[in-house]
Amino acid sequence: MEIIIQPTANAASVIAARLIARQVREKPDSVLGLATGSTPIATYQELIRLHREEGLDFSRVTTFNLDEYVGLQAEHPASYHAFMDLQLFSHINIPRERIHIPDGMAADVPAECARFEAAIRAAGGIDLQLLGIGSDGHIGFNEPSSSLASRTRIKTLTERTRADNVYNFGGDFAKMPLHCITMGVGTIMETRAVLLLAFGAGKAQAVAEAVEGPITAMNPASILQMHPVAKCLMDEPAAARLKKCEYYRWVFDNKPQWQRV
Ligand code: GLP
Fold first, then answer.
1. Beta strand 194-198 with 128-131: parallel, antiparallel or unpaired?
2. What is the CATH number of domain 2-253?
3. Domain residue ranges in the chain
4. What digits encode the pLDDT tens for the residues 97-126?
5. Where are the alpha helices (DSSP H) in 91-233?
6. Where in the sequence numbering do the catalytic residues fall?
7. Residue whose CB lies within 8 A of the most ligand 1 atoms, among 164, 181, 232, for a mutation test
8. Are 170 and 155 in contact (CB under 8 A)?
């Protein structure tokens, strides 16, 4: 895992956007895996800026989102469909038919999960997967104890995740779904490159366990230690509990020119 610690979340987000932009410029028909939550918003804002001001072209890009709540219409303001539209898709030139988000309203959830996996395969696999991390170490909605080999499936949200995200539902737990559809940990591990973002002190423990702890289903992000191309971009508060901070900084500052962002 490559650990990149930046002074602010914004600085880290600009790097993340540059890495995504580089991927799209080098391979205009890239397949991107996208994430929701507050964490990637600044990265999406920078991508929108790059699209508007520098002509970053998404016309041949295909996207797959990690997850969606079960039982929410795409039009529901707290759905991840609505989030992606608001934060990214309505501001860039990506064709609608190239956007894939699990359908939380599917009558047959296992069939929807199988369809989603098949669509990823048909697109040739995901080139670059953007990830946030839950305060309990989840990636996508793969909560602690998720199989590290899991595929896209239904999951039940933990109380902690529900508490972290209930603000999207006006603070009302009764309005918040209990279930979601999420790409599996195994699905995420098959992506060609991973970019995990972690911001704020609330993520420090999960990040320390994921990066420097043992690989365990109790912190699903820890499996990224086994991913061949995983970068973890964070701000200072999220890095606060890492033991080898100085080493990670030294590595970043001494990269050969051709490896710099
Ligand atoms: C949700 C999403 C995750 C995201 C996490 C963190 O659970 N399913 O993909 O990483 O929230 O959210 P935030 O970025 O708001 O801290």
1. parallel
2. 3.40.50.1360
3. 2-253
4. 999 999 999 999 999 999 999 999 999 999
5. 109-122, 159-165, 185-189, 204-212
6. 67, 136, 138, 143
7. 164
8. no
